[in-house]
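Exercise 7. Given the encoded structure of a 298-residue chain, write a plausible sequence.
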């Protein structure tokens, strides 16, 4: 019997299977180390990317902060004397279009709309073809916006009945007073964007930056996989078309907590792919708010 058993191909010495599996185990260990190193490399690159995106956020906010007061001055004729902008909403939309076009900072601002509200906060007209804001009390939707009657202010919130096909979103709003000749506030000039729209802008900007770097290095075929998102205490808001599993993975990183005292970075495996991430706060956008970059090298 022993001779028969020893003759069978699968009944060899106990050491032989170990010798056969050793190269496989070694290869798996090497692959694991490589993935970890790759993820750390991606995180290191993501740190630079996140810092660049935070600087871009500051520039974008600066365009709005500089341009809005100038735009309000140009809208002053709408409330001059006894003029009531409610009586000619077509003229309001036309004036808003001129302001967007003629005020340099506003012409390049990332705003998705410009609008005029009366002194009580009721939206009169925006510059979009289809106006779903008209008649809404913006002070009720965004309570902090009432301070725009006195000077430039920014706040966040969410328009009622806003489309959220890409998941929960948030609106960033800026407002400034439009003064009458007497110095009283005759209206409020308002602008803003959604966090997901803004994340798409940041992601496209990073794409341009990485593409340029790849061209200079001759590695155009080695572009990393990357995503950019805005985060706050309520969640993570990635650009449209970002895989939900990636946004979910970022949502599980406690980005607000980890960035409380400065930038943060880490690694994560998503659908068997190693990623590195880096996040930093952007307090100019809103408290407890920041940007995060998720990246994986080829």
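Solution.
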């Amino acid at each position: 019997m022993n001779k028969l058993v020893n003759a069978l191909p699968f009944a060899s010495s106990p050491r032989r299977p170990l010798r056969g599996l050793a190269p496989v185990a070694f290869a798996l260990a090497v692959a694991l180390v490589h993935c970890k190193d790759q993820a750390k490399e991606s995180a290191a690159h993501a740190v630079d990317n996140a810092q660049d995106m935070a600087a871009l956020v500051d520039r974008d906010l600066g365009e709005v902060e500089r341009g809005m007061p100038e735009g309000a001055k140009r809208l002053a004729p709408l409330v001059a004397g006894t003029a009531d902008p409610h009586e000619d909403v077509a003229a309001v939309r036309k004036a808003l279009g001129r302001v967007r076009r003629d005020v340099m900072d506003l012409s390049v601002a990332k705003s998705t709309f410009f609008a005029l509200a009366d002194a009580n906060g009721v939206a009169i007209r925006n510059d979009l073809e289809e106006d779903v804001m008209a008649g809404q009390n913006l002070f009720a939707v965004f309570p902090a916006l009432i301070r725009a009657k006195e000077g430039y202010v920014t706040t966040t919130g969410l328009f009622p009945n806003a489309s959220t096909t890409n998941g929960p979103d948030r609106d960033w709003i800026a407002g400034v007073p439009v003064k009458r000749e007497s110095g009283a506030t005759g209206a409020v000039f308002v602008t803003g964007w959604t966090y997901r729209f803004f994340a798409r802008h940041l992601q496209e900007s990073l794409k341009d930056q990485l593409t340029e770097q790849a061209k200079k290095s001759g590695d155009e075929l080695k572009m990393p996989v990357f995503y950019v998102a805005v985060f706050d205490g309520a969640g993570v808001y990635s650009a449209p078309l970002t895989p939900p599993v990636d946004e979910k993975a970022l949502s599980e990183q406690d980005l607000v907590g980890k960035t409380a005292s400065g930038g943060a970075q880490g690694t994560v495996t998503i659908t068997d792919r190693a990623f590195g991430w880096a996040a930093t706060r952007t307090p100019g956008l809103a408290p407890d708010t920041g940007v995060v970059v998720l990246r994986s090298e080829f």
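Remark. The chain has two domains: 38-56+197-296, 62-193. Students should compare their own answers with the one above.
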